[in-house]
Amino acid sequence: MEKKQLTIEQKRLEADIWIISIITLGVFLFYATKGNQLMSFVRDSHISVIPRLLLIASIQFGIAGLGITIVCILRKEKFIQFGLMKKNLGKSIVGTVISFLPHICYIFASGKFNNYQPFSIMITDDVIASGIPFSILGMALIVVVWGFFEGFNYVVICEKINRRYPTKKQWLDYGAITCAIVCIVFHPFSTSFWGILEIITTFIAIYGMLIIRKKTGNAWGCVFAFCFIWNAL
Fold first, then answer.
1. I want to staple 175 with a disulfide (CB 3.0 to 4.6 A). Which of 46, 91, 104, 158 is the partner?
2. What's the rounded Cα separation, in Å, for the pair 130 and 132?
3. Nearest-angstrom CA–CA distance, 207 and 157
C-alpha cells in the first residue's frame, strides 16, 4: 500500500511539533539531572533574589515557553493568532474555571490547601520583600513566565497537534489529550488514592480548558487558569 504523502503544511506542523518537543524535553531532562543543585541555589536566602529568580525563570520558560516562542518566530506567527482576543473572554474564563472545579475540590479535600496566593512560586515572598523596583520587576517576570506562558504554551501546542492530526469527532481532541498527559507527567504524582484522584482531576482541568478554548476561540481562559488557579492554590 502506497504511503500517503504529507502536504507542505503537514510537514511544517510536524517540524514545529518536533522543535517544541525537543526543546521542552531537553530543558526538562537538564532540570531532572541537575535539579537538586539548582534548587539548592534558588532556595539559598543568603544569595540575592535576582540571580535566583532569573535562574528558576529561565528553567521554567525553557520548559513552558521557549519552544513555542522559537516556532512562532520561525513561522512568523503572532501570539494573537492563537486566541488572545476580547471576543468570548467571559465565556472562556467561566468555562475554564468550571473545568478546574474537580481539581479545586481535590485540593481542599486532600488537605493540600494552605492559602490563596496568585503567582506563588517558591521564592515569591523573597521577591516581594526585595523592595522597589526589584519587587515590581520580579513579580512582572513571574506573571509572564508562570502565568502567561505556562497557560499559553498548552494553547499553541494543542493547536499545532490538532492542525496536524485533525478529527471530526466533537469531543475527541488529540491536542488536548496530549497536553493533559504532558502536564501530568511533568509534575510530581503518586499512585496512592489521592495521587490517582489528582491525576484524574488534572486531566479533566487541562483537557477541559483546551476544549473551552477551541469552542470559544479565546485563549485567555487558559492563561487565567495558571495565573489565578494552578499557581495560586
1. 158
2. 7
3. 13
Residues 6+ apart with CB under 8 A from 68: 20, 152, 153, 156, 157
**Rounded distance, CA 78 to CA 85, Å?**
12
**Residues 75, 32 contacting (CB under 8 angstroms):** no
How confident is the model over 139-164, as pLDDT tens digits? 999 999 999 999 999 999 999 999 99
Cα 66 to chain centroid, rounded: 12
Q: Taking a C-beta distance cutoff of 8 angstroms, is the pair 205, 225 a contact? A: yes
Grid-cell match 521564592, residue found: 123
C-alpha cell at 5: 504523502
- Please check the confidence at residue 2 and state whether its pLDDT lies above 60: no
